[in-house]
Amino acid sequence: MIRTETTIRVRYGETDAMGFAHHANYLSWFELARIEMLDELTLSYKELEKDGYFLPVLGASLSYKQPAYFDDRLTVVCYVREKPGLRIHINYEVLRNETLLCTGSTEHAFISKDGQPVRPPKHVIQTFLDAMENE
């Protein structure tokens, strides 16, 4: 399993009239954590795109437990439990200190520039396998 953590700070513009972080922001936070996870694995998403591989979101689910507020410092934890194939599934937890605020997941497909499903490059699969062995 791969586990990474990304720290974020809730900005004022991310809150709604009730003072809560708006629910839609969690997907942006998932994306930020996902890109950071790839960077930690030395798999730059920008480089993957340059090489002709894209990872669109096929589906997302979220379950809200507690609200986040302006200026909260949050930790977004990413988990990858299975090696990627044509698809990759990522789980998330959003925490304020030890308090679980949200859980979620996204599913992505590896596609080519023309939108066709493709297997990820061998070095990508190997990087995931190596990281899973080291966890």
> How much of the polypeptide forms β-strand, as a percent range?
25-35%
Mean pLDDT: 95
Strand order of the largest sheet: 1-3-4-5-2
Which CATH class? Alpha Beta
**Any low-confidence stretches, pLDDT <50, length ≥5?**
none
Number of helices: 3
Strand element count: 5
Question: Which range best describes the helical content: under 10%, 10-25%, 25-40%, 40-55%, 55-70% or over 70%?
Answer: 25-40%
CATH-assigned fold name = Thiol Ester Dehydrase, Chain A
The CATH architecture can be given as: Roll
Gyration radius (Cα, Å) is 16 Å
Structural class by secondary-structure content: alpha+beta
Order of helices and strands: EHHEEEEH
CATH H level, superfamily name: Hotdog Thioesterase
Q: Major sheet, described briefly? A: 5 strands, antiparallel
Shape: globular
Summed up, the domain count is 1
Please report the distance between the alpha carbons of the first and last residues: 6 Å
Explain briefly what this protein structure is:
The protein is α+β, with helices and mostly antiparallel strands.
Describe the secondary structure blueprint for this structure:
Blueprint: E1 2-9, H1 25-40, H2 45-50, E2 57-64, E3 73-80, E4 87-96, E5 99-109, H3 122-134
Antiparallel strand pairs: 1-3, 2-5, 3-4, 4-5
How would you explain this protein's 3D organization?
With 135 residues, the chain is α+β, with helices and mostly antiparallel strands. The protein has a single domain (2-134), classed as Thiol Ester Dehydrase, Chain A. It has helices spanning 25-40, 45-50, 122-134; strands at 2-9, 57-64, 73-80, 87-96, 99-109. Strands 1-3-4-5-2 form a 5-stranded antiparallel sheet. Strand 4 and strand 5 (99-109) form a beta hairpin. The longest helix has 16 residues, at 25-40. It is globular, with a radius of gyration of 16 Å.
